[in-house]
Structure formats: structure tokens, C-alpha cells
Specification:
Largest sheet: 8 strands, mixed
Strand order of the largest sheet: 3-2-1-4-5-6-10-7
Radius of gyration: 18 Å
Strand content: 15-25%
Helix content: 25-40%
Bound molecules: alpha-D-ribofuranose, calcium ion
Length: 311
Amino acid sequence: MTQRPFIIDCDTGTDDAIALMAAFGCPEIKVRAVTSVNGNVREEYTSANNLNLMEYLGIDVEVSRGATLPFYPRGNYYGTTHGRTGLGDVDLPDAQHSSFSKDMAPEVIRRIAAEENGELELLVVGPMTNIAIALSLYPQLKEQIKHIWFMGGAVKGGNVTSTAEFNIWVDPVAAKIVTESGIPLTMVGLDVTEKAVLGRKEEKELREYGSKASVLTADILEYMFKRCQGGGEDALMHDALALAAAVIPECLTCKETFLDVECRGEYTAGHTVTDLRGRMGKKPNASVAVELSLDIFKDWLVECIKRCGKA
Ligand code: RIB
Ligand code: CA
């Protein structure tokens, strides 16, 4: 099987970490680099989480730092959803033998896109600042990136405001640059990710499996369960579902639609505008996930995590 080359751009975070472990347990893909962006927590933490996680799992992959701020200031949006450092109450050992790439995220994207000669795909599961900077610096990427699979937005609803999802809300300008790039896009938004919940059954199975990745995932799930009991978000696998869209598309129903991002509204900036009914007279530029087969997704995710570290 020819492995599909990917870069994963993430604001690691609890669900990002689980998506990363799943990605390294997917035989279909080869992760060429993990690039870090600020979002759930400051970039100093998201990048450290990425580096520490890779070393903890014994995975040799390029890890780069990235954007510390969105294109226009959004104030302090670092909530408590992912805990102080981004991995909830899980403390990974600091990396001792690994170091960050000499290149920042946009340069890593440029270099690997050129190396992969039109086959590179991006999994984007945080604010899109790095991607937009890369596209702005290197317009050739519009022809070199094969597909962008992203967790973000929603046809209906939001989790920051009633109309905006976090990844897009943090940097709507960056998201607009990406949606206007012409690169094939698949949007995996809250419409489906808010149904992508793991429970005690999966936590128990992973803990009993006993690998580093499966026990770490179980520990992160435990934190998410406690968070939910305290009134916070449930164990939603937002980011892993965007990976699933790329690897097991049969778990999602997607529809082609026009997609744009509202950047200016005082209360609506960050809203993803979709046109599922085709009433706006605009050409579709994205595929948007609208339905989820939860059991297919959960079974696949657990098996990927079990394979992580044993690729
Ligand atoms: O809205 C959910 C998204 O915001 C997920 O990617 C989560 O990790 C946070 O970044
Ligand atoms: Ca994320």
C-alpha cells in the first residue's frame, strides 16, 4: 500500500493528542511532520506537547513550532477546557533527546509540499494561521497541496458563540484565506464532531490494552470525563474525526457546498457560511460532513490507537 503523505497542524490539546496517536496508528498514511499552532493553549505549550508526545511514544517525526497569534487579536481565549498546559491533568516527561525543526511551520509545509510533488495532504485541527501564512508566502502551494481535511466550523451552531466554532473563531481571516485557496477541502464541523463521543467502554478497553498510547489515551479520556462531570465538554473526538474523514470516509456523509467565513461581524466573525440548499448561486468549494456513523468511527479509532507505536 502506498502511504499518503500528511502534515498534521494542531493546537495540542487533549483531542489533538488523541488524533495524533490515531494518525500514527494508521497504516494508510505517513505523517511527514507535526506543526504547532496556538489555540487551545499558548503555542509554547502546544509545541511542547507535540514534541513531548512524540518522544514519549518513541516516534521519530519532524515537529515544528508555529504561529503564536491569529491574524487579528482575539484577546485571551485560552480557556480551561484542556487544562493549563493543554493535556488536561496529564503530565508528559519533557523531551530529552528531541528538538524542534530548524524551520517554522510555514517553511516546513513549503518544503514538504515540494518534496511530495502534489501528493501532500494536510490535517488541520487548530486555528488555520500557519496554513494561511504558508499560502500567503508560497502561492505555489495552491497547486501542490492535494487536500485539506480540517476540524472546524459548523453548518449550524458554535461552541464559542452561538454561530462560531473555536478553531475558526480564533482566526477567521486565516480560515477565509484557506477556503478561498481553491485547494480541495473537507470540513468536519461541530455538526458531526459533537456526536463523536468516547465513553467508559473505550476507556476501559484502551487501559486494559496497556500500550503507552492506549493508556495515555485512557488517561486523557479520564480527564475529559471529569471535565464533563464538572459541566465542561464531554469526551468529544473533534480532531480524530477529521482524520477519520480522510482515512475511513465511509463513517461520514458529506455534501458538496459553497463555504466561506464571516470575518467582520462583531458577533458573527468566525461563522462558517455554507449553502447546502444551493440557494446562493455560488460554486461549491468544499465537502462538508453532515452525518456520522458513530460505531464505525469508535471501533476504528480504538484500533488505530492500539496500533500507535507499532506502525
Ligand atoms: O472546537 C473544537 C476544536 O477546538 C478542536 O480542534 C479542539 O482541539 C479545539 O482546538
Ligand atoms: Ca484542536
